[in-house]
Specification:
heterodimer, A: four-stranded antiparallel β-sheet
Amino acid sequence: GAVVSQHPSWVICKSGTSVKIECRSLDFQATTMFWYRQFPKQSLMLMATSNEGSKATYEQGVEKDKFLINHASLTLSTLTVTSAHPEDSSFYICSASHRDNSGELFFGEGSRLTVL
Amino acid sequence: AQSVTQPDIHITVSEGASLELRCNYSYGATPYLFWYVQSPGQGLQLLLKYFSGDTLVQGIKGFEAEFKRSQSSFNLRKPSVHWSDAAEYFCAVGLYNFNKFYFGSGTKLNVKP
């Protein structure tokens, strides 16, 4: 099956620093990638939708200057948490939809961010 | 407001018993509907999906779901639960030609021996 890989799986950073999380589709081309945030014991909250080569579309309430998303190629999207604060600590998950638009989402393993 | 609702936060069933997890959505048009399962420490796995056609869809691991337009529901069922089914289950909807995906709050399933 299609594989989506996230890196890093775990990251701990100091408050005020920026952190970049990568999401790669390893064996398929993903026209659309999604970034989610999952709080403990809660569901996935859609943060933004990114299409290759265009600006990401952010959900209401998500700060686009805080969470920078780049989708430079059909296999790579990045999420950069800028000037991270402890309240940004969370589990971030990316997913990708196949170029054939079959409707199935393939999920990365998630990245746990802890901001000290 | 548009939403995906899973009214049951936790469900406990005995092994071998039947299971039904509820999901309701509130969107103007019929969305594309999905059920995902998330096991502890693992990512999400697609169980089944509904786009159109037969309203009863079969998925992996013996799961099925039925789309009921009149009730805006897409409930997940399994006739006989196995201990390995203990996990968290998420209903999701896809909109606008899959450019938007939203998840319900999840239902955590516990299975008693």
